[in-house]
């Protein structure tokens, strides 16, 4: 899971639980997402990289492209 790229489908920011769609198990699934760095935020449509995975559905992400 760590290192996979996904698309933000629900805004991720401090105090918000965002959503990211990731390709897994031959399909695309939604995960609850938080920023790796607390002050970061990500808008819908941005591409992010998973830095931590907490089963079954929680991930921490950072920007895929600086």
Can you describe what's shown?
With 66 residues, the protein is mainly beta. The chain has no helices and five strands. The protein has strands at residues 5-10, 18-24, 27-35, 47-54, 58-63. The chain is globular. The two termini are 20 Å apart. The relative contact order is 0.32. The mean pLDDT is 95.
Search tags:
about 70 residues, about 0% helix
The coarse silhouette is globular
What's the story with the biggest beta sheet? 5 strands, mixed, barrel
Give the fraction of residues assigned to helices. under 10%
Instruction: Identify the strand order in the major beta sheet.
Output: 1-2-3-5-4
Calculate Rg over CA atoms: 10 Å
Mean pLDDT score: 95
Put simply, the count of helices is 0
Element order: H for helix, E for strand: EEEEE
Q: pLDDT below 50 for ≥5 consecutive residues: which ranges?
A: none
Question: Got a strand count?
Answer: 5
Beginning-to-end CA distance, first to last residue:
20 Å
Question: Structural class, from secondary structure content?
Answer: mainly beta
Question: Secondary-structure blueprint of this entry?
Answer:
Layout: E1 5-10, E2 18-24, E3 27-35, E4 47-54, E5 58-63
Parallel strand pairs: 3-5
Antiparallel strand pairs: 1-2, 1-4, 2-3, 4-5
Write a concise synopsis of the structure shown.
The chain has 66 residues and is mainly β. It has strands spanning 5-10, 18-24, 27-35, 47-54, 58-63.
């Amino acid at each position: 899971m760590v290192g996979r790229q996904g698309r933000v489908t629900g805004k991720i920011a401090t105090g918000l639980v965002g959503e990211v769609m990731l390709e897994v198990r031959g399909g695309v699934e939604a995960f609850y997402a938080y920023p790796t760095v607390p002050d970061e935020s990500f808008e819908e449509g941005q591409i992010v990289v998973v830095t931590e995975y907490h089963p079954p559905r929680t991930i921490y992400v950072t920007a895929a492209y600086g």
